[in-house]
Each structure stands twice: as C-alpha cells, then as structure tokens.
Amino acid sequence: MELLKFNNLSYRDQVSHFVTTRHGGVSVGEFTSLNLGFNVGDKYKNVERNYEILAGELGILPSDFVIAKQTHSNNVIVVEKNKKRGYPTVPGTVLEDTDAMVTAVGGICLMVRTADCVPLLLFDPCRKVVAAVHAGWRGTVKNVAGKTLKVMHERFGTRPQDIEAGIGPSAGPCCYEVGEEVREAVMKMPVAGERVITSGASRGRYYFDMRSANRQTLLSAGVNPDGIEVINRCTICESGNFFSVRAAKGRTGRMGAGILLDF
Ligand SMILES: [Zn+2]
Q1: Spatial contact of 95 and 101, defined as CB atoms under 8 Å apart
Q2: Is the whole-model pTM more than 0.70?
Q3: What is the mean pLDDT of residues 180-209?
Q4: Could you tell me the end-to-end alpha-carbon distance of the chain, in angstroms, rounded to an integer?
Q5: Is the pLDDT of residue 90 over 50?
Q6: Rounded to whole angstroms, how far apart are CA atoms 138 and 144?
C-alpha cells in the first residue's frame, strides 16, 4: 500500500501519520480501490475490508480509527479517553457534524476523509496533542484550521509556534475552478484574499488555491513557516492516484488522512 507522509511529522517521535491514495484496497469500479467513504455508494463490505487493510498496514485495530460525519463546518471535537470512540462501521459511533478532531489520548487514530478537499494534520510535540482537519472551500473560509488551533490552545495550552503541520493533496489551483460566490467568501477571509484566488478561464470563474489558503491561515495564527509542509499534488490532475469528486463528476471514493499519538 502506498501511504504518503510528511517529512516534518516523520522525523518526530511519539506520533504516526499517513495520507492514503486510491491504491491498495478491494473496492472496484469508480471506488477503485482503497475507498474509505461509507456513504458514497460503494459496497459496505468492501469499505469495511479497506479499513481492516489500512489498520493492518498501520499496526492498529479498525476500532482505533475515529472518524466523523463531515459537514463542511468549522466544528471541532476534542476526543476524550473512551468517549465516543468506536468502530467506524457501527452507526452511531461516528462523530456527528464535525470537521476537525483533536486528542491528547494515545493509540487512537483521528482520520478525516477527502476527495478534493484539503486534509490537515497537526501535531504539538510539547503538549502531545494531535488534530486532523477537513477543509473544503467552505471549511477554509470558515477558518476551520484556525479554530482547531484555538481549541488546542484553550484546552491543552498548545502554542502555535510549536506546531508541526501537514497539508495534504487536494484539488489544486491548476484545476479548482470556482464561481463568484466562493470568490466573495475568500476575499472576506482575514488572511488570504487575492493571493489565493486568480482569474479563471472565463468571466465570473476563478481558480482557488485551497492549500495555500489553509497555509496562510496557519501562518497568521502563529505557526512557523518551517513547521508547515505541503504536499503540492492535485487530486484532479492525478485522479488515477487520488479520488476526486470533480474529476469523477460526483460518484467516487474517499481517501484518508490520519494521525495518532503513541501510547
Ligand atoms: Zn490540477
């Protein structure tokens, strides 16, 4: 199985992480092959098997994954010990209505699922806290990444300058065309503005650099430039390697980006 890694997080002790591609699973057709999305039209059994394969690769149990029903919100949940922890295939144990998860508990893998949206993984090596964030354009303009840092600070005393962050593959500025509604929302962002949005192929169309916008968000919150690593690969350009809702025009699988503290 091909798992992508961030160098800055790989160098650190006490934390493991990964970003999946679409390779290495058992799903077929438009879900080929490592689909981690349960509600996208794939066979349930295959998705379940994909979780088992991924867990085996990571040396953890499927029950160690904590996932969320992502809603393009900026809701952040702190995952406590033994609370709301459960097998992702059991309905009701998936965290509801949240796009960012934070924990200081070792041995549980916070994982966001994406197919064009931006996955962010955060690690505070001083306070031993991790977070996984899902940021599509809505989450990005709602500052879900900044809000996650705020929760880490309030709850655990995390200082932004200590953070090591990874920003994973997403729809890139080469392909991610958006309309006026998105441009207006982006221009209202305190940090990003015109640096992350450029004119598109036709009138009223724009290209939005979501990875850069999230990087700017982290920087403006006080994260060091050296602490942020970006995998600048576009899910639409590379739809053979990544799931992309845009490239597939809808029906497709989901990749996972996960992080866990050692016990
Ligand atoms: Zn592209």
Answers
A1: yes
A2: yes
A3: 89
A4: 24
A5: no
A6: 9
